[in-house]
Amino acid sequence: MKVKLILPSLTEAKTAFWRPIKYSLFPPLGLATLAAYLDDTDEIDLQDQHVETLNLNDQPDLVIIQVYITNAKRAYNIAQHYRNKGVFVALGGLHVTSLPDEAEAFADTIFIGPGEQTFPIFLKDYRNKRTKRRYVSSMGRTIQDQPPIRRDLIKREKYLVPNSLVISRGCPHHCDFCYKDSFFKGGKSFYTQRVDEILTEIDRLKGKHLYFIDDHLLGNPRLSRELFEGMKGMNRVFQGAATVKSILEGDLIEKAAQAGLRSLFVGFETFSPDNLRQSNKNQNLKQDYERAVKRLHELGIMINGSFVFGLDYDDRDVFKRTVDWGVENAITTATYHILTPYPGTRLYSNLEREGRIMSRDWDLYDTRHVVYKSKSLSEKELEDGYNWAYEEFYTWSNVLKASLSHEQVEHQLKHLFYTGGWKKMEPLWNVIINAGGLKRMLPLLELLLSKVEYKREAQLSVAKLNSDLRKSSEMIAQ
Ligand code: SF4
């Protein structure tokens, strides 16, 4: 059987927001995971439109497309193209789960929820020519004892971070704006692999660098602790995501740093307790953000802070406050979002009930556009403020100021190169990608993520240097 697995590119691919490097980071792990359930005799073609031009002139037996909200239109067009040729098309993913009725119109079969249990059942039905219109994941979810991901189908050289892995599904929390609860409706919403399986998977990955793309790497403290213990001596450096609370509780974050954690995505989202309460992001309530940042810095862990604008208790100053806080606290990179009510979430239902959804053009649901009526800010204020925040945080003077806030020169340089490299070198990245040179950049990333010891005495010796550098940065800023 000939099977084609497709990840259509997100809508940004044809807009001014398109940044090739941002979309050349992670391979399509979800599709490679599903491919593991196919037979050895099946002919499989996995294509990711973010990094290659899709070949649509073929005639596979079965096409499987992964649908996110901002690639939905593109996914439906591709589905239509293949169905017109008589090919069986199956759709799955977050958007299909949120709006199954919409997706079903473009497919022979749809998958609702995670695919690990439903996909093998579908395959059996497909081979027996008795497929159903819908396969709904509910009970019995697990990612333990699964066949190994078909990493051989991934074009490693096209990604900056080919060694991405996921050791869990979901997250233990329930934020109102998050897709998670609707995607996992009807069954478990947080479950993990076993430590021995994770270590085996890590062993399969060449090189030093790993990126855990789990929603919450420290979500199951017992598992994380055993994992970090098992990773000691593996000589790996890794990145991941976790909550403020998990950074502050106990010593798990120290264990992570000892195992090689060098950069962490942290969902700060908002400083307002009212906003947190209203969004059901209770895990951030009463947490000391500054203390979490300090702790990460002391462990040599860089921070990608995530922030949301447009929550009901935001005011016009929220943009400046958020940027200033990020710079003053030396956040390495910041990811800003305009609040986006994804269909299927509690936020969407609430806003719909209040008559505040302004657009159902899914292409605009990219966290850069305002698609709902904010309570305290106009659409223009919100979009302008969001754009201003990005520009302001990444001005050279602010990058320099944040870098120089670190006490050690090594940290300052790492911060400067990491942030500068990520946000200020776009033309260079484009040249590298076009020349097929991404694979040569991985050692550089590994170098940037290498360990810097936190030495108290070193702080004193560089204090004077810091003060001189700060003066220079202030002169640049003027
Ligand atoms: S902590 Fe993150 S992943 Fe978990 S529910 Fe909240 S937003 Fe979603």
Strand elements, count? 14
- Compute the separation of the termini in Å: 65 Å
CATH class of the largest domain: Alpha Beta
Number of domains: 3
Strand content bin: 5-15%
Largest sheet: 6 strands, parallel
SS element count, helices: 20
How would you describe this protein?
- This protein starts with a strand and ends with a helix.
- Helix 13 runs parallel beside helix 15 (379-393) and helix 16 (396-404) packs antiparallel against helix 17.
- It is built from 20 helices and 14 strands.
- The longest helix is centred in the C-terminal third of the chain and has 22 residues, at 456-477.
- Residues 457-466 have low confidence and may be disordered.
- It has a six-stranded parallel β-sheet with strand order 2-1-3-4-5-6, sandwiched between helices.
- By secondary structure, the chain is of the alpha/beta class.
- It has three domains: 2-136, Rossmann fold, CATH 3.40.50; 163-393, Aldolase class I (TIM Barrel); 418-477, no CATH class.
- Iron/sulfur cluster binds next to loops.
